[in-house]
Amino acid sequence: MKFLVSRYNPESDASPYMQAFDVEVSRGMMLRDALLEIKRQDESFAFRHSCGEGVCGSDGVNVNGTNKLACITPISELKEPIEIRPFPGRPIIRDLVVDMTQFYQQYKAVKPWLVRNDPMPEQEILQSPQDRDKLDGLYECIMCGCCSTACPSFWWNPEKFHGPQALLTAWRFLADSRDQATDERLDALEGPYKLFRCHTIMNCVEVCPKGLNPTKAIGHIKNLMLKNAV
Amino acid sequence: MSRKASGLKAWALQRLTAIYIGLFSLYLLLVLLFAAPGGYIEWKAWLGGSLVSVAMLLYVLSVLMHAWIGVRDVLIDYIHPIAIRAALLGVVGLSLVAMGLWAAQALILVRLA
Questions:
Q1: Which of B6, B8, B77 sits opposite A156 (nearest CB)?
Q2: Topology of domain B4-112, per CATH?
Q3: How far apart (Å, rounded) are the C-alpha atoms in residues A173 and A33?
Q4: B interface mutation test: which of A156, A162, A228 has the most B CBs within 10 A?
Q5: Residue whose C-alpha is closest to residue A218's, from A132, A131, A147
Q6: The CATH homologous superfamily of the domain defined by A101-229
């Protein structure tokens, strides 16, 4: 099967180019297996991967124009020639390896931890099963970056717009009954950039390999903001 | 619009004006389809009515505000050099104000005539 893979070595190449590889495909083969085979053919080829089963979120790449996790993408689902590029909008370090610094900075900016003003209890902070259910569809994010790097608003303003991943996380803590910083979190999201660059394009929903819905989470944040403002 | 209020306020206003624009556009369409004023005199009488003229003024204002928020969003997204963005925002803002004043003038003249 024919693969076209984006190659770029900043030390020797003026710009990225596509290189063709021929990979013998076997039944049940995932895209990550093909990338490993390409690496066997040309050891200078660089890409990130680790767990190989859609848990670590390392091997997000752009396949035939869509961001996917290579390890859980069956080759059989892809149209030949399979074009593999790094995540769009991110600075390329080498081949498919991109610089995700801004993505992590935006994650950090939403304070992705529980904030408690009350003194900590002796043991755990209790939560009802109903309140726990509110975190479903939020906590599962593995931070692969497929969503944020598919988001046009994040392409245009990655230093100011939080992006779908960080906003999903922001809602994950706003929705948590144990968190006590709702007002501070909402205040921090005000202004035209951090939250309101989202124009409900929904690329994030389309590409999320875990089937999560950042757009819906962003809608919840906006509604809560409005509720607290009027 | 203050820096702090320009997120939620703009977003909410965009949705609020959209609802009014939608409803009044529907009303306008129905009037034009089923009860269109026959001539200039009838048209003036219709538009000069106190309810219609105020509703129309609110409609124009809503369209202008909606347009301002939308264009501002596009400029924030795509135009990053601050001088160019400010200049474009200025041109758009002044144009919208001019259109609003023009529409208000027309409505006032219809009321007075």
A1: B77
A2: 3 helical TM bundles of succinate and fumarate reductases (1.20.1300)
A3: 36
A4: A156
A5: A147
A6: Alpha-helical ferredoxin (1.10.1060.10)
